[in-house]
Amino acid sequence: MTDDLRSAELTSAALESKAWPYEEARKLLKRWPDGKPGGAPILFETGYGPSGLPHIGTFNEVLRTTMVRNAFHALSDQTTRLIAFSDDMDGLRKVPDNVPNGAMLAEHLGKPLTRIPDPFGKFDSFAAHNNAMLRQFLDRFGFDYEFVSSTDYYTGGRFDEALKGVLRHYQGIMDVMLPTLRAERRATYSPVLPVSPTTGVVLQVPVEVVDAAAGTIAFIDSSGERIVQSVLGGQAKLQWKVDWAMRWVALGVDYEMAGKDLIDSVVQSSKIARVLGGRPPEGFNYEMFLDEKGEKISKSKGNGLSLDQWLSYGPEESLAFFAYREPKKAKALHFGVIPRAVDDYWQFRGNYPTQPIAQRLGNPVHHIHDGKVPAETLPVTFGLLLNLVGVMGGDATREQVWGYLGNYVPDASPATYPALDRLIGHALAYARDFVAPTLHRRAPVGVEVPALERLDAELAALPPGASAEDVQNIVYEIGKSSFGDAGGFAELRDWFKALYETLLGTSQGPRMGSFIALYGVENSRTLIAEALARA
Question: Are 94 and 69 within one domain?
């Protein structure tokens, strides 16, 4: 099959695919069926509030937007851009808990983030520090984006005409916003926030439009003086819902997604964009993450999971897999979901090469890797690695794990399986922090004792080189057997549960045939002997 035919087949399948990135991409095809006027690129945007450091939500939004952008490339040869917009003109509302020099920051509350000293002492401003962290964060994952500073656009004149448009349509914007506000807020609300010439604070005060064409307003400064001032050149910014709408119109944004908590903001900003004579972008609202108790994750509560924490225990592909699946469904985000995400990612990746093209396009790994899915496979699951490391104890080393893998994989080495080598590091960290503290090997009771004795005897009789399947068959047959007056297991799963609890110290675990082959028959017999000694 030629590349042209292969590409045509891909495009045809993508036009019908139910995978959400393709469904989103088709919105853009419908938006611009003949291409954007003048050949302008389709513009994707993600937003970032630099009053805090980048976090897992930032990663997810840029990742998901990139997936839609990649899907669009499969459907169209139109050029695209992705901008990461930092709202660094915003006034600092409160001192973050996770930065130094809080007292210094408190002296600058209300000022634009780009006009506040860097509490870390490394950059020209607090915003410059956090913007640098954002760029470093996005570069770490190889995202293709253009960084945009709100301050640069406000002070550099990029938004001047759009700001004059806001003044021309001032009443129309007020008509959209006022019905959504409480009475006390309506009394002081203004779409335009002037920067005080005396204090440098972004003021939340009523304003009077003096000359829309010239871009001038009047307001009462914090000193009580009436000030007539331009909104251009960084002397004012917009309330954020108005700012969002103005930005869409001024930049020609075609696609931006947002969290479910911003649905109302999307509605209001879309109305304002229309008042300004523009067209709101396409997009969808994704669900929020929940903690293990089902409560919304909050940075102030500290009940979330940071990006660095996830990447300590699982590779970035596993986080991308977690982000891809069911974005419109609330999902628990806690340490316990990481092993499942790792193994599910590798299972879908293993299925990918043999799937027909329609299934491939719905496979999460297609979107994680933009259709260039690596060929490397894993000889063991992450769950099996965790069981192995858990049995080995908290002082297990990477070299020791590779030694055990030699029992199970003839050509086991970091050079042969580099992805597995990285997973071993994650498994050692996860087992140390989450598995080892919970392990408790109980004593076998009742029918479990003769069952374990029979397992030991049959393992001893195995010929050298017996396969994991051979061992699994033995385990399975013992579970089905009856043991005289002692009786048998009521259900087969009771036997496997007994193995997990007495040998591994967990309530659930791997295929025991695979585990015994990996851990080694003699080592496994030692586990059995230790369990029987507790009986």
Answer: yes
